[in-house]
Amino acid sequence: MRILIHAIHYPVCSARYAVDAFKRLGHEVYHIGEETGRNIWGMQVPAEYEWKQDSGYIAWVSKDLKFDLNIVMDSHSSVLDNHGFKFVEEPVVVWGVDSHVRDYRRPYFNAYFLAHKSVSIQPYDENTFWLPCAYDPVAFPPSPIPWEQREYDVCCLGFMYERRWKIVNAMREAGLKVVAGCGMVYDQYRDIHHNSRVALVSSFNHDLPIRTFEGAGMGCAVLSDETPDLRWLDPQAPIVQCMGDPDGVVRLMVEEAQRLQSEPEVAEACQQWAASHTWDHRAQVIVNWFTARNGGAA
Amino acid sequence: MSQKPYLNVGAGRVILPAPKPAHYGLIPDGVCDYALWVNADRNAQPGIDVVEDLFTFPWSFEDNSFDGILFSHFLEHCPHEIRLVSEMPIVNDIPLRPVERKTADRLRSMQDGWFALMYEAWRVCTPGSLIHILSPYAWSDGAVTDPTHTRLLTPASFTHSMQPDPNAPFAYATGGLHLVMDEPPRVNLTPAFQHLAGQPERLQQALNTQINVAYEFYVRLRVIK
């Protein structure tokens, strides 16, 4: 199948993972969209992480190449409101990881695959399907560092809003060695997780983010606040969830982070669980939808 | 690894990463949250990673060691003389370090301690890095009355001889550093002039002609290599 993915080309974005996933599944994939160069999150990443659109741009404009499926993987209006989609014959679907903060509905989209269910602001109808986030097993393989030799007790990598700092500071005051902050991408992000025993995931929306799957896949014990979608996805998931009032959750997270230091089996269970939650698995769902729509032909 | 830490020069008691302190208001969100920092100061305090007098040169860091630098209320203290780490009297038990003849000659040839400092910042940063600067605004009580301030700075201080310019009427010896201001500077206004915040032309006129209009400014420089 020949696929064209539409997204702003940030150095780090779900579209980039999706391109690789579809390619691993054996499909011909192109990608098109505005390039942001090295800029993301108000900083610059090393030049090697830039993501440039490929010849899909020319193919889209010249219409020399016919695509079987268009996938829109961005919540920015410059992508969603591209009226060129009105004149496209082949199906156009949305694969949205920001459905907890974005409504992707437009008249010209054939289906929606949304990452969030219980916290989705877009209602589900017959053309809307739940497709949770996942992780890239090639970019973020399991940690090769033995449990006892990992440098950090806890890692918390991402945008550090106030709640995350509160949890991190409480952990540090309790004597845990915590690495926290934003700006780490790919190799550095991977290396820090590989060197950590616990991955702390705290989302103010109580959504199920990519970070949960990445931390698990890299062999960390994942410690999270309450995540309703995780209970929907797999009630038996080995992710440790802390529930209660905000201050109670902070105390509980400190206790659980301390407990998990001596329980590598939790991290092993997380890693095995994550093996079924890669971007490849998610991409296959979209392929299956397309196949069924075409009467069995892909 | 490709990503390098940021350097917090003259960290003092502000150890990064940390929630952005209130007095760092002009610094963009996210800078203080960057996960990897090297906190450097000449006083050994909890959280300081490198104890070094960064007004002596050369710095101990290798070329291209950092992806960013923060100078928060540091540069206005920069001495005019160029002090080498091999010659300074020992302060705070910081040991002297030998300096290669070639490096010493290069440093001593610079026009002023200012250029030695800015050259070192440029040298230790990777291409494209950002240098974040927070300083008292020259024409304000805070800038003038502090006896440890050796120089008065405005945003214009960072457009003067910061990049090679064959057409410049004078050629200060800068070691060849190349820094460009890649966004407009920001200022913190004193209460009496808050009303000019949304009036850029009137604000600029006031800054050009009156004192105590702004008490602090922020500029961001990009490292060109």
How many helices of chain B? The count is 4
Distance between the ends of chain B: 20 Å
What is the rounded distance between the termini of chain A? 6 Å
Secondary-structure element order of chain A, as H and E? Answer: EHEEEHEHEEEEHEHEHEHEHHH
Going by helix content, strand content and strand pairing, the class of chain A is: alpha/beta
Proportion in β-strands of chain B: 15-25%
Question: What oligomeric state best describes the polypeptide chains here?
Answer: heterodimer
Arithmetic mean of pLDDT of chain A? 93
Number of H/I helices of chain A: 10
Order of helices and strands of chain B: EEEEEEHHEHEEHE
Strand content of chain A: 15-25%
Give the overall form of chain B: globular
Main pleated sheet of chain A? 6 strands, parallel
Bin the helical content of chain A.
25-40%
Global Rg of chain B: 18 Å
Radius of gyration of chain A: 20 Å
Count every beta strand of chain A, where a strand is a DSSP E run of 2 or more residues.
13
| Unreliable parts of chain A | none
Based on DSSP secondary structure assignment, what is the total number of beta strands of chain B? 10
How would you briefly describe this protein structure?
The complex is a heterodimer of chains A (298) and B (225). Chain A is α/β, with parallel strands linked by helices and 298 residues long.
Could you explain the architecture of this structure?
Chain A has helices spanning 14-24, 56-62, 77-80, 162-173, 186-194, 210-217, 228-233, 246-260, 264-274, 279-293, and strands spanning 2-6, 28-32, 39-40, 43-44, 69-72, 92-96, 111-114, 128-130, 152-157, 178-181, 196-201, 221-225, 240-242. Chain A has 298 residues and is of the alpha/beta class. In chain A, helix 1 (14-24) packs across helix 10 (279-293). Chain A is globular, with a radius of gyration of 20 Å. Chain B has 225 residues and is an alpha/beta fold. Chain B is built from 4 helices and 10 strands, in the order E-E-E-E-E-E-H-H-E-H-E-E-H-E. In chain B, the strands form 2 sheets. In chain B, strands 1, 2, 3, 5, 7, 8, 9 and 10 form an 8-stranded mixed β-sheet that branches. In chain B, strands 4-6 form a two-stranded parallel sheet. The longest helix of chain B has 12 residues, at 113-124. Chain B starts with 5 loop residues before the first strand and ends with a strand. The mean pLDDT of chain B is 93. Chains A and B meet through strand 4, strand 10 and helix 5 of A and strand 7 of B.
